[in-house]
Amino acid sequence: MRLHGVGRSGPDLAVAAVVLCVLAACGTSPAPSPTSGPTTTPSATAAPTTSASIRAACADIATLKSSVESLTKVNPAKDGAAELTAAIDNVQTSLAAAEASAAASPDLQPGVAKVKGAITALQSATSDVTAENIGQKAPAILAATRQVATAMSALSTAVNRVCP
Question: What is the rounded CA–CA span in Å between residue 66 and residue 42?
Answer without folding.
Answer: 30
